[in-house]
Design the sequence.
C-alpha cells in the first residue's frame, strides 16, 4: 500500500542541535543493528521505519556490517527508501559506518583509506543513495595511522559522498587527536557515537567534556543496554527477546538472578516516576545537555512509540539519581 507520512509527525519530537553545527537531530534516533537483516521479516522492519518517521524520528543509524548477513540491513533500508521514503529524502538523516569486518582479505575491515573508501561506495550502492548524511569511522584502528583514517573521512566529504563525518567508540585521547587532524584538513568532526547507559558510564570520565569543549555532538548507542534496561528480563528470558536469539549480541549468561533483582528495583523507581524502565533509562541519558540524541534499537513498532514517551520527563531529583547509582554500582562498566 502506498505510504503517506503522518501529517503531524513533527508535533511532539524534540530536535537538538548537534554540537555547534547546523544540524538538528531528533532526541531519539533509530538504529538498524538488529531486526533489519536478511534473517528478519521485511514487513516488520518496514513497519518500524514507517512508525519511527511518523513519530518524528528523522535519523536512521546504519553501518556496513549490520544484518545478519552483513550488509543486509542497508539493503533492507534501501528497499524501504524506494517503496516508502523516496519522496522524503530531504527530511532524513541517514548514517553509515565502516570499521568492522565486511569482506575477506587485508582490506575488508579497520581504518585504511582503501577499506573506508570502498566500504562507503558499497553502502551507497546497497541503499541506493548518492550520499549519506553522516559517515563514521566505526572503531579506532590501532595499526593504521590516524591521519590515514581521517584522510578517508575527508575524502568522503570532498567527494560529496558524506555531508558530515563522525567517529565511534574512540577513547578520549584518540578523539582529541582525530578532531585536530580533521581540522587540519579543514573539516569538523560532527559527532561521536559511544556506548552509554545507566550500566555503562565510561564517557563521563572525560569524553563528554572534550566533546562539549570542541562543539561536537554525542549520540550514545545501546542506551537500553540492548534491552536489559526494559521490563522484559525482570523475571525470565522471553523466547522472542534478543538474549534468546542465536544471532543476538546480548548473552543469556549476562542475565543473572542478582542483576534481575537490581533491574526490578530500577523498575520500581521508574514506576514511581510514572515511567516504564525503558523510558526512565532513555530519560537518564538525555538529562545531560551534552547528549544530542540517543540511538535506540527495536524489534517491533510498539517499542518505538513506547520509548518516545521518555521525552515527557527527563529531569531527575538528586535522590532518584543516587538510588539509580546505588542499584547499579556492582554492574557498571
Ligand atoms: N557504534 C557502534 O559501535 C554501535 C554498537 C551497537 C549499536 N549501535 C547503534 O545503536 C543502535 C541501538 O543499539 P541497541 O539495539 O543495542 O539499543 P538498545 O536500545 O539498548 O536495545 C534495543 C533492544 O531493546 C529492546 N527494547 C527496546 N525498546 C523496548 C521497549 N519499549 N520494551 C521492551 N524492550 C525494548 C528490544 O529488544 P528485543 O529485540 O529483545 O525486543 C531492542 O531490540 C543500533 O541499532 C546501532 O544503530 C552502534
Sequence:
Amino acid at each position: 500500500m502506498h505510504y503517506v507520512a503522518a501529517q503531524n509527525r513533527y508535533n511532539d519530537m524534540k530536535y537538538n542541535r548537534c554540537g555547534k553545527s547546523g544540524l538538528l537531530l531528533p532526541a531519539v534516533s533509530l538504529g538498524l543493528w538488529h531486526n533489519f537483516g536478511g534473517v528478519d521479516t521485511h514487513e516488520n522492519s518496514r513497519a518500524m521505519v514507517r512508525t519511527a518517521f511518523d513519530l518524528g524520528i528523522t535519523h536512521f543509524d546504519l553501518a556496513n556490517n549490520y544484518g545478519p548477513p552483513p550488509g543486509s540491513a542497508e539493503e533492507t533500508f534501501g528497499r524501504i527508501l524506494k517503496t516508502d521514503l523516496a519522496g522524503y529524502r530531504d527530511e532524513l538523516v541517514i548514517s553509515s559506518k565502516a570499521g568492522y569486518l565486511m569482506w575477506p582479505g587485508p582490506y575488508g575491515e579497520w581504518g585504511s583509506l582503501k577499506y573506508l573508501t570502498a566500504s562507503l561506495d558499497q553502502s551507497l550502492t546497497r541503499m541506493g543513495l548518492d550520499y549519506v548524511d553522516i559517515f563514521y569511522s566505526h572503531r579506532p584502528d590501532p595499526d593504521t595511522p590516524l591521519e590515514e583514517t581521517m584522510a578517508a573521512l575527508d575524502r568522503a566529504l570532498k567527494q560529496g559522498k558524506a555531508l558530515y563525518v563522525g567517529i565511534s567508540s574512540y577513547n578520549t585521547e584518540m578523539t582529541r587527536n582525530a578532531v585536530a587532524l580533521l581540522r587540519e584538513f579543514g573539516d569538523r568532526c560532527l559527532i561521536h557515537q559511544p556506548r552509554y547507559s545507566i550500566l555503562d558510564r565510561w564517557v563521563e570520565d572525560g569524553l563528554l567534556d572534550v566533546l562539549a569543549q570542541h562543539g561536537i555532538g554525542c549520540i550514545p548507542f545501546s542506551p537500553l543496554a540492548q534491552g536489559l534496561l526494559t521490563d522484559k528480563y525482570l523475571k525470565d528470558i522471553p523466547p522472542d527477546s534478543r538474549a534468546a536469539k542465536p544471532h543476538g549480541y546480548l548473552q543469556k549468561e549476562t542475565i543473572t538472578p542478582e542483576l534481575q533483582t537490581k533491574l526490578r528495583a530500577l523498575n520500581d523507581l521508574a514506576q514511581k516516576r510514572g515511567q516504564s524502565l525503558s523510558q526512565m533509562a532513555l530519560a537518564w541519558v538525555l538529562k545531560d545537555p551534552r547528549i544530542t540524541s540517543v540511538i535506540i534499537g527495536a524489534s517491533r513498532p510498539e517499542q518505538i512509540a513506547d520509548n518516545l514517551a521518555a521525552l515527557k520527563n527527563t529531569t531527575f531529583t538528586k535522590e532518584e539519581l543516587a538510588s539509580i547509582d546505588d542499584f547499579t554500582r556492582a554492574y557498571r562498566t
Q: What stands out?
A: Residues 15-331 form a domain with the TIM Barrel fold (CATH 3.20.20.100). The radius of gyration is 19 Å. The chain has a mean pLDDT of 97.
